[in-house]
Amino acid sequence: MQLIGDIFFLSGTIFLFLGALGLIRMPDVYNRIQAGTKAVTLGSILTLMGIFFYFPQWWGHLCLIILFLLFTNPVSSSALARAFYRNGISVWTKTK
């Protein structure tokens, strides 16, 4: 069981790293929000699933945290993108 948990931890950290890399590498704020939200959400969920294999008695709490992440991350990224759009921050020039 711990091997499965380790695999989830490793894949979660890879996605968290890719999300952080996307925040650095993407050209404009809209692409950064997209890269950060999707990769970090998946990385967090995989890490929490890895925790489940180490501590199975925490399954209820971990499910609630995963549901909270699934509902709040897309809403917060959408609110951020809308705020940037309303403030007149344009997309990267090569995107058009």
Give the helices and strands, then pairings:
Layout: H1 2-25, H2 29-54, H3 59-86
Task: Looking at this protein, list some descriptive labels.
single chain, 96 residues, mainly alpha, 0% strand, elongated
Structure notes:
- The model has no long low-confidence stretch (mean pLDDT 92).
- Helix 1 runs antiparallel to helix 2 and helix 2 runs antiparallel to helix 3.
- The protein is built from three helices and no strands.
- The protein starts with a helix and ends in a 10-residue tail after the last helix.
- It is elongated, with a radius of gyration of 16 Å.
- It has one domain.
- Helix content is 81%, strand content 0%.
- The protein is an all-alpha fold.
Short description:
This protein has 96 residues and is mainly α. The protein has helices spanning 2-25, 29-54, 59-86. Helix 2 (29-54) packs antiparallel against helix 3 (59-86).
- Count of helical stretches: 3
Largest sheet: none
| Percent of sequence in beta strands | under 5%
Element order: H for helix, E for strand: HHH
Bin the helical content: over 70%
* Radius of gyration of CA atoms, rounded to a whole number: 16 Å
Oligomerization state of this entry?
single chain
User: What distance lies between the first and last C-alpha atoms, to the nearest angstrom?
Assistant: 49 Å
- Secondary structure class reads mainly alpha
> What's the count of strands?
0
